[in-house]
């Protein structure tokens, strides 16, 4: 047991949620305040996702207090709102390692804790996965609650509605908590709303509603339909939950997600209900809640670097070169000034892709479609089909979610959609879920696609260092900047093969990418038939954990010393301890 401090005396007594559930309800407000203090202090040291986690402190406390986790399954959508959850689930002593090498993941992760029943770092997956768990429970005849917590931004993803449509047609008991911190889809919340939510979620009301439905079925069809419509009208007038009701969910809310006294009775009522089918609890929260600098920031400090807790000043380093996203945005703006057919599309990542700058200049030609990558790509295809020149700026791993649209709607129809793929390659502390390892492979196999990687003077710095080290072994080396994976510069490749004994391709991507395209060309043209030694260096066949970029490249064996070792191995030589300088 850790020592009790004056700063967080209640939190110091909590190691797992079972400890939390032993507290009296009147202590939970203080516990939430202490949890928020601990969160602010921890993220000020490590950086990371911040605003969303600040917004769910009270909700996290209430959920773990009411539900019997980990027996009850608690699924967090995306996972960047789960920092308070991690602190309460036996990971407080490691919270200052979050997103660091060997430390906690910045997202939920099954291998990290039994309290993380489903890993997630991409949005809109919680309802689908939770429904799967609920059905598994029912098939085994078990008794447990399954709760999905989904943010309003993730509700912009079509997959969430696919899951709700499916859940609404089933009798499996599923609880969805909508953490509404940005959409403003709710009427004002307060004492009356809290009272009505408590009433509507109560066992007596839900049972009465069930009885009324059974009785109404014995009425003539016209009267039964009229009674149902009257009840839906009354409930929608009171709560505004018409959409969710139409999808088959029993809607409760909105309630103040920062008021524990409002949260507890509603969550208890939902927990104790025996009514079949899914229920949605609508909690209204504020991103960055409880920390003034985050509350006042435009992005509510969604993701931050290390910062000073008192002043809120973030310790951001000054880059020596302009960021790719900025260069891309400025280049696109310059082209758009000359061609009014150019439009830009992003899927909820305007600042992450640089399109916020484009939007400032051309607000009517920039489209943020929300977390809806499938729609983004098909929308771009529609624009291209009618003569526009769309640029879809999407993260590499997010574009994976729209692969069918890339194939079916763009590639087959040969539509000129340009994909500006951000976060390609390894991504440091975001780790496995955001590493753009597969884009060259999954796009390079599509007929008609052109695959190129932009370059600058810093691109080949590892490769150039390897060439210098090989020179110390008396080996002459040529370094070629291969901008295109498709189509290949076959003239260049053929010349390099003719003039060198060993050819090594190096890429920050999975097998099946640039090196595979080179090998295929050489094999099909007989250039492997006369003793050429070729090696392809790619990312290893594993998902690399989050770490510093340097550590990740070391683990992937793609740094200069690995290139040198590969070249010498191909020649039957080994790295000398102290190579003689030529």
Structure, described:
The protein has about 575 residues and is α/β, with parallel strands linked by helices. The protein has a five-stranded parallel sheet, with helices on both faces. Strands 9-8-10-11 form a four-stranded parallel sheet, with helices on both faces. The chain contains 25 helices and 15 strands. Residues about 185-190 have low confidence and may be disordered. The termini are far apart. α7 links the parallel β3 and β4. It is about 45% helix and about 10% strand.
Q: What is the gist of this entry?
A:
With 582 residues, the protein is an alpha/beta fold.
> In percent, how much strand structure appears in the residues?
5-15%
Q: How many helical stretches? A: 25
State the helicity in percent bands. Answer: 40-55%
Please provide the count of β strands: 15
Low-confidence stretches: 183-189
Shape call: globular
**Terminal-residue CA separation:** 61 Å
The main sheet orders its strands as 2-3-4-6-5
* Class based on secondary structure composition and strand pairing: alpha/beta
Quick check: average pLDDT? 86
Largest sheet: 5 strands, parallel
Q: How big is the Rg?
A: 28 Å
């Amino acid at each position: 047991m850790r020592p009790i401090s004056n700063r967080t005396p209640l939190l110091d007594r909590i190691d797992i949620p079972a400890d939390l559930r032993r507290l009296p309800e009147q202590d939970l407000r203080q516990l939430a305040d202490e949890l928020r203090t601990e969160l602010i202090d921890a993220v000020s040291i490590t950086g990371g996702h911040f605003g969303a986690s600040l917004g769910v402190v009270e909700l996290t406390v209430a959920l773990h207090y009411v539900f019997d986790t980990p027996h009850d399954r608690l699924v967090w959508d995306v996972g960047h709102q789960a920092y308070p959850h991690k602190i309460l689930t036996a990971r407080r002593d490691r919270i200052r390692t979050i997103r660091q090498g060997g430390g906690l993941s910045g997202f939920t992760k099954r291998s990290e804790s039994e309290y993380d029943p489903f890993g997630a770092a991409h949005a809109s997956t919680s309802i689908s996965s939770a429904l799967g768990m609920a059905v598994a429970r029912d098939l085994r005849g078990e008794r447990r609650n399954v709760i999905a917590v989904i943010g309003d931004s993730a509700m912009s993803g079509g997959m969430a509605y696919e899951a709700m449509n499916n859940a609404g047609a089933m009798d499996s008991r599923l609880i969805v908590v909508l953490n509404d911190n940005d959409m403003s889809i709710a009427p004002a919340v307060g004492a009356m709303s809290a009272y009505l939510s408590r009433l509507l979620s109560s066992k007596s009301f839900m049972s009465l509603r069930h009885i009324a439905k059974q009785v109404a079925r014995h009425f003539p069809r016209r009267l039964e339909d009229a009674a149902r419509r009257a009840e839906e009208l009354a409930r929608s007038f009171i709560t505004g939950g018409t959409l969710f009701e139409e999808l088959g969910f029993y809607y409760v809310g909105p309630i103040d997600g920062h008021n524990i006294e409002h949260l507890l009775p509603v969550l208890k009522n939902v927990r104790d209900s025996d009514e079949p089918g899914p229920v949605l609890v609508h909690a209204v929260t504020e991103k960055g809640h409880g920390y003034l600098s985050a509350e006042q920031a435009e992005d509510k400090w969604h993701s931050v670097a290390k910062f000073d807790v008192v002043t809120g000043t973030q310790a951001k380093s000054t880059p020596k070169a302009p960021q790719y996203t900025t260069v891309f945005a400025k280049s696109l703006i310059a082209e758009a000034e000359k061609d009014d057919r150019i439009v830009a599309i992003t899927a909820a990542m305007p600042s992450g892709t640089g399109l916020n700058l484009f939007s400032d200049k051309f607000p009517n030609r920039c489209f943020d479609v929300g977390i809806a990558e499938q729609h983004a790509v098909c929308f771009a295809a529609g624009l291209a089909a009618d003569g526009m020149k769309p640029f879809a700026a999407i993260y590499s791993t997010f574009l994976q979610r729209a692969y069918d649209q890339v194939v079916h709607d763009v590639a087959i129809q040969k539509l000129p959609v340009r994909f500006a793929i951000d976060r390609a390659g390894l991504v440091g502390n975001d780790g496995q879920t955001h590493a753009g390892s597969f884009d060259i492979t999954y796009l390079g196999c599509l007929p008609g696609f052109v695959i190129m990687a932009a370059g600058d003077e810093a691109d080949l710095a590892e490769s150039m260092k390897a060439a210098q080290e090989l020179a110390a072994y008396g080996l002459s080396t040529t370094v070629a900047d291969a901008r295109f994976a498709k189509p290949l510069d076959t003239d260049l490749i053929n010349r390099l093969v003719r003039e060198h004994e060993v050819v090594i391709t190096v890429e920050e991507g999975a097998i099946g990418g640039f090196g595979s395209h080179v090998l295929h060309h050489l094999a099909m043209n007989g250039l492997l038939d006369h003793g050429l030694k070729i090696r392809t260096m790619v990312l290893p066949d594993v998902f690399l954990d989050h770490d510093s970029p340097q550590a990740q490249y070391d683990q992937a064996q793609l740094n200069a010393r690995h290139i040198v070792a590969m070249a010498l191995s191909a020649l039957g030589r080994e790295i000398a301890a102290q190579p003689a300088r030529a």
